[in-house]
Amino acid sequence: MSFLNGSSPHRNPAEDDIEAGPLSRHSSDVDDGDSSDPFDIARTKHASIDRLKRWRQAALVLNASRRFRYTLDLKKEEEKKQILRKIRAHAQAIRAAYLFKAAGGQRLEQGQGPVSGDTKPALTSTGEFPIGPEQLASISREHDTASLQQYGGVAGVSNLLKTDLEKGVNGDDADLLRRRNAFGSNNYPRKKGRSFMMFMWDACKDLTLVILMVAAAASLALGIKSEGIKEGWYDGGSIAFAVILVIVVTAISDYKQSLQFRDLNEEKRNIHLEVIRGGRRVEISIYDLVVGDVIPLNIGNQVPADGILITGHSLSIDESSMTGESKIVHKDSKDPFLMSGCKVADGSGTMLVTGVGINTEWGLLMASISEDTGEETPLQVRLNGVATFIGIVGLSVAVLVLIVLLARYFSGHTENANGTKQFVAGKTRVRDAVDGAIKIITVAVTIVVVAVPEGLPLAVTLTLAYSMRKMMADKALVRRLSACETMGSATTICSDKTGTLTMNKMTIVEVYAGGTKIDPPHQLESSPKLRSLLIEGVAQNTNGSVYVPEGGNDVEVSGSPTEKAILHWAIQVGMNFATARSESSIIHVFPFNSEKKRGGVAIQTADSDVHIHWKGAAEIVLACCTGYIDTNDQLMEMDEEKMTSFREAIENMAADSLRCVAIAYRSYEKEKVPNNEDLLAQWSLPDDELVLLAIVGIKDPCRPGVKESVQLCQKAGVKVKMVTGDNVKTAKAIAVECGILGSYADATERSVVEGKTFRALSDAEREEIADTILVMGRSSPNDKLLLVQALRRKGHVVAVTGDGTNDAPALHEADIGLAMGIQGTEVAKESSDIIILDDNFASVVKVVRWGRSVYANIQKFIQFQLTVNVAALVINVVAAVSSGEVPLNAVQLLWVNLIMDTLGALALATEPPTDHLMDRSPVGRREPLITNIMWRNLLIQAIYQVSVLLVLNFRGISILGLEHEQTEHATKEKNTLIFNAFVICQIFNEFNARKPDEFNIFKGVTKNYLFMGIIAFTVVLQVIIVEFLGKFTTTTRLNWKQWLISVAIGFIGWPLAVVGKLIPVPATPINNVFPKFRRTSKKKEPETSQ
């Protein structure tokens, strides 16, 4: 029974389940489930290939190409890995040959012959540019530093490409078009998607449909031979037509799904990045990149094209995507080549684009492999288990019906409507006997078609495709299918503060400078030295930029929200960004680090003095200060009293939910600065004996509606935890404002912790406290990872938001990784499962609703399909065993299968989410798919349908007053009424399935146009089938009274459903009611390691 519920019959009791109890487990236990059941994979995110192979081999499948279309293609995946290995080996061989050549050149230089490459390479003109794409590609692919130097280095190449290294390309349409024509666009040829005819061919591969087509052909041949072409083609032709209709409708549904997935995949690839064009930073699509563009690079960015480094500060690149080796490579003037597809691991810099699209190694690689976006989801795997169980039952029933009907037929117990025996040994012609046997086999095979719910696992793909498309409108881009449904099981959301709970629109509202509070915050005219040092530090120690258009109006500031706030403030203080940067030169940069919470820069002024500027978390930078500059521009010692006053100022600002940033500097002896590039790259900037210049308080207001979103999560049984790098007091104030903390009184030691305190605990202590933590301040990305691991070991299903490169491990470890679309780095996005396009917590809550909707829609479809399954099987089996005739023939059953399978899935699996979903607790990932409520609903409807239709089958002729008509016509009319009533019952029951646990089944129905359209289509086609296609379906026209009887039988299903919902059901799942069976299965299990 538990197998039917989509979970293992060899599982631990519910109290040991990951959602049902507080049992602590290791990650592997939580992920893998019980290995004895191939269909019990709770988490497919990192499932092994062997686990994926096991469930596929265990599944009962009639059409493998269709069933496994949207799962990971294991064969293609292996082929893809082999191609990647070949391309990487080829690239490494080219570089090895170049290094060998370079080494030979050095020997020649030492006096053993003429120097190789002594002459400047010949230029091949490409229209308006003196250098061609082949030469540029050759330099980049071979990492040919010698050729680069002969062209004049990066400056020489930029001249050949007509690019200004400071301002970038001109950027007008004519210039961009010239560059695309000369060097190509940043795209690569992709393999064409599958055509509609390929989907038709896949639908034809269904084993049962193939058997039916063979039977139809045989029936057609026998019919034409015995009755002539005019009358003899109906039996075989009608089956063939019904099969073709099933194939066409199936193919249309599958083709539409594939188009939706194709559009979503295109959206995933469309990365947006900043480039410098005409001296200003502009955001463009990766596809709009051209050769000659100048691109700023920061931690977490993807290198979008092949290029050469212009300037770099501690720039390190992760080239594992290209080389296959997880080695971080430092980039400088000695190794300035950057490969498309690699990630910035550390530091910052700017690059000149020299190759795009197919002219890059990444483009060649991507063009060589076919992207397989398929993946199985836990629900899909479980539904395959359900479908396999139902299929085995259905197959057994079909075999039983086949044996009974054949036995009755050949033993002479099957009679015609006029009472004559259909088969008499020695008298019946062989042709008639074969025709009779074919009809029996056709019925049995059609029962298999109805009984094996081939469309059940595919309904997951259908609802996910629909949900993913709709989620785009709700600002969520799904990267992994499984995440969409797993979000419905989320019990905890670990959210960032900045930009997710807050608006990410930062302004400086409070400033302490010169040892005192400045009001207004930009009033620093009385302290020229302090003002000058602040402007110098802000202008140079930043990843942002300021663009002043001609005329000087509407200054454009770019960078992170914090950088933009500080730059805006500095402009108000009197900073001219371009002038301030030109008055000093950068020696070395220590990029902002989320572990150290600060970033620094060493500069050389026009007077050749060396200044080191630091900026970062206020209390951390303040702790490094030994002095400060007062309002009279005098350097003062930082005594204990002054240190305390500054700390109080920080605490007061933090209590007002302000983010506090300190700006400090120190002078440094020029002689101590490394003068060698290699030593400079390793130089650790001094951060002691700093002089405090200012502490700024940055206001970042909470997002409108975030409090309501948090409360909605809490009502839905989802805990929201804030994990932030900000000061604990700032975090606490924002948490109260957002509703994560009810009040300041709720901020206890166990609910509000600091990152360093949490990481100092043991694993067991972290697990103990993880549930109670609501706010974690001053946390590092590793603290976030530790929290996720502790929560998952406690049995929680964890969703985590992240935007930085260092968030990648936590996003990867979490059940659902949510990356921020605006502030998120490419590294974070690639490690995530869903991208929140507007960085808004309200969108995270919408994803939870959609996740629950996926699960709820699948359950609606299961309830509807199983009702049809049970009713159709019981009616045909009872009739076959008792009378040797079945009331529902092959064509009728194929039509029922179409309503139940493809059309039913379209109608019910595409229901939009409702607020009612958030009134429930999270769905346990191993909770039975068929709940007690569903069992109650489907059994009531199935028993009612079976009872009424069997009464009609055995007593229908007398009930309908058909005794005086010819027996054959009366039987045909009775069977037509049974078929008509059965189909109409399913139409009425489709409404019941919409709301399994609500009384108002019509709520929101008029807004679901697809549902209404399918109901209308089914009704119209049913009328046409009964009234006009009788020869094909072996039906006869019904009068208006018989239509009313059919509708009345179907309508009774509505009040019956209302009465049924008043019947209470036990809270314990039905599969847990069999303790003996579960005890036996438990004995077979190995002990779970604790």
UniProtKB/TrEMBL annotation:
Which residue numbers delimit the Cation-transporting P-type ATPase N-terminal domain? 150-224
Could you tell me which Gene3D superfamilies the record lists for this protein?
1.20.5.170, Calcium-transporting ATPase, cytoplasmic domain N, Calcium-transporting ATPase, cytoplasmic transduction domain A, Calcium-transporting ATPase, transmembrane domain, HAD superfamily/HAD-like
Q: Which CDD domains match?
A: P-type_ATPase_Ca_PMCA-like
Give the UniProt keywords, A-Z. ATP-binding, Calcium, Calcium transport, Calmodulin-binding, Ion transport, Magnesium, Membrane, Metal-binding, Nucleotide-binding, Translocase, Transmembrane, Transmembrane helix, Transport
The record's GO CC annotations read:
endomembrane system; plasma membrane
- Family note: Belongs to the cation transport ATPase (P-type) (TC 3.A.3) family. Type IIB subfamily.
Main function: Catalyzes the hydrolysis of ATP coupled with the transport of calcium.
> What protein does this entry describe?
Calcium-transporting ATPase
